Amino acid sequence: MKRLYIHHASAFLAAPDTALGTYKQIVKQLTGHVLRRANRFVLLSVIGAMQCARGAELDPLTGIYLATENGNLSDTENVLDQIFHQGNLPMPYNFIHTMSNTAAFYVANQLGGSGPNMTISSKYLSYERALELARLDLSTDRVHAALIGGVDDAGLPALQFGQRYPRHASVKLIEGSCWQYANDQPAGALGYVDGPVTFAAPDALIAHLRQIVVTPASWQVCWGLNVDRAVKQACNQVLPDLKSFDFINAHGYFDTLPAGVVSRFLEPRQPGNLAWVNTDKQGRWMVVSISRSI
Length: 294
Prior knowledge:
Blueprint: E1 4-14, H1 20-31, H2 40-53, E2 62-67, H3 73-85, H4 92-96, H5 102-111, E3 117-120, H6 126-139, E4 145-152, H7 158-164, E5 175-183, E6 191-199, H8 202-212, E7 219-223, H9 229-238, E8 243-244, H10 247-251, H11 257-266, E9 273-279, E10 285-292
Parallel strand pairs: 2-3, 2-4, 7-8, 7-9
Antiparallel strand pairs: 1-5, 1-6, 4-5, 6-10, 9-10
Helix pairs in contact: 1-2, 2-5, 8-9
């Protein structure tokens, strides 16, 4: 498949208690439009995508690939509360907004163009699956370019997050909408993406890292929260000079974290490479490698 060359990247990160009115004002500044009935998830999606597209000459046949782990979690929780706790029918707009795939349409509507738009969710590997689809569509000429994003609000309470990730209960939760605009043209690119490459076992993953990390001093690695210490230690034994890219410690965590990792890594124009390593609860392992261009 064709390599994805990233020409624009942006990372919009915000505190969980950011007022909805603040998001609406940012959307108005970016688009000139007031999205009166848009919810938190839609607003986050539009803000991140428009920030990435600002200053870019988008090909009309650009595909939009919005990855999300949870979709519109806030309105979904509201609807369930109205039905099961309050014993009422859900409010119409809350009910409509549980359809998370409308966010990709809102992005497409703001950007124009004639490419496909879709929402992708695959538990713990949503962004990686979006990359796969974007590369496939680009390789088969279904699209000429791709706008790939990861969007999630911080709807999960800190207590539930701590129960899901007990080793990371103290992590700061944030909201994120992080996007990259990519095509198959290397000229002027910030960097390029290879992968995701899939493995059935951590041993095969570590062997792959050993193969691609030819010069450890120029590589960094960023780990997903599901990666256990034993795998990290095994990697450190094989590649002791491999540095860590600690996005979570620097910025916080949202559920489509790898989209933020890619955007933040590409922002400085410095040489180097990054390996993003992730896994799900079924033992599927994925590596995405990102290389910066000068």
